[in-house]
Amino acid sequence: MKKQLLVLLIAIFIGFGTNAQTKSSETNVLVLIYSQNGGTYKMAKAIAEGIQDYPNTKATIKRVPSINTKEKLNADVEKLPIATIEELANYDGIAFGSPVHFANISADMNYFFSQSIPLWTSRTLEGKPATVFMSAGSGAGKEAAILSFWNILASHGMVIVPTGIMGTATLDKTIPQGNTPFGATSLAGSTGTRPSQSELNLAKEQGKALARVASGLRNTENIKSVKTTSAETKIDINKTLKDNNIVLPEAPKPVGNYVPFTISDHKVYINQVALKDGKILNPGKVGATVTEDQAKEATYQTMLNVIAVLKEACGGDLNKVKQCVQLTGYFNTTPEYTQHAGLMNSASNLTALVFGEKGKHARATIGAASLPINSAVEIQAIFEIE
Ligand SMILES: Cc1cc2nc3c(=O)[nH]c(=O)nc-3n(C[C@H](O)[C@H](O)[C@H](O)COP(=O)(O)O)c2cc1C
Asked: Does residue 101 line the site of ligand 1, with CB under 6 A?
């Protein structure tokens, strides 16, 4: 019993911790890389050094997960913490690093960004400064690779920080160097120790330039206010649902002496489980009979049910939603299970996708010994409506 209570407390802590939006007095810059053999990581360390040279600025190096989980990574890279796509929102600036793969960015970094649709549609990264550095072999296609990375950052509305002619005054021109006006690169397959001292100097300059922009922009709230006041950005939820092929189910009917929702002081209170077509989707216990993928699918279905009920509460017009205030996810898990936050992201991402800025919510996740009708998940939701 004591053990279960401890697991429950840890799960609540993890649930809150993952979503915490900390605003410290320091400028926080993320250096996010994919690196297989360590070349990009060496450049990342120089970028981080440059960032930290800027006053009152902290750099954190993380990596994106490998698509191929059996892939052998450089031992130092392997030890780096893995970033989630959602956490990009928490930094004041981001330096992205990738190897050049066929004059493009690595598939792993590309895959990471393919999960950024909720951030994209909610315009979360808009106005956030970003820069790109790379590690190449001979350097063939290195500029095209940086520019292809810029396409993603531009789509997110990020402020791209280029390198111009930074560092070229001190460039050792006796050997080939990876300098470009777009970002630092290293010619890992070229002569001499790589990254060369000139390549590292340029990376440091680039890090400092990003920190300067991040520090200058971090307290500007104008982007947020433009987003919420501009008439052209008024989002029609029905269009968002259609554009994303999201079909809401029929709102599940109550099976006892209660109602599917209550409204008090413009707040709607809803509880749902993973019902689909009258049956529980993927019932059972996560960590025993239900896989994480099945639990995520059940969580997504549960959130669809919540939104379907919410639509009823809004008299059929989801555009009346002002804010998703809080989501609480209960998961039917084994006592040892700790990855509740990862499961709950299926609900949080759907909410962000459907409601954009208004979908940003506080969140808790909790492990339970059992749930009604053996559902793997139950979600309690609070929305504010007009
Ligand atoms: C699939 C693949 C494609 C590559 N394509 C290029 C390329 O187009 N141009 C280039 O200069 N190097 C290319 N390389 C070499 C890598 O960019 C180089 O080894 C880099 O330093 C690897 O970075 P890492 O040590 O961080 O993994 C390629 C390597 C791989 C595995």
From this structure: yes
| pTM of the predicted protein model | 0.62
Pure H helices in the chain: 2-19, 39-53, 75-78, 107-114, 117-121, 142-155, 197-217, 222-229, 237-243, 292-313, 340-355
Q: How many A from CA of 110 to the centre of ligand 1?
A: 15
- The answer to the question of residue 237 being in a domain is yes
What CA–CA distance (Å, rounded) separates 336 from 344? 17
Q: How far does residue 144's CA lie from ligand 1's centre (Å)?
A: 13
Among the listed residues 296, 281, 365, 297, the one whose alpha carbon sits nearest the alpha carbon of residue 330: 365
Whether residue 342 has its Cβ less than 6 Å from ligand 1: no
Q: Is the CB of 40 under 6 A from ligand 1?
A: yes
76 and 198 fall within a common domain: yes
Predicted confidence (pLDDT) per residue in 192-237, tens digit: 999 999 999 999 999 999 999 999 998 775 454 444 444 445 678 9
- The residue among 223, 241, 275 that closes a domain is 223
Q: What are phi and psi of 161, to 5 degrees?
A: -105, 110
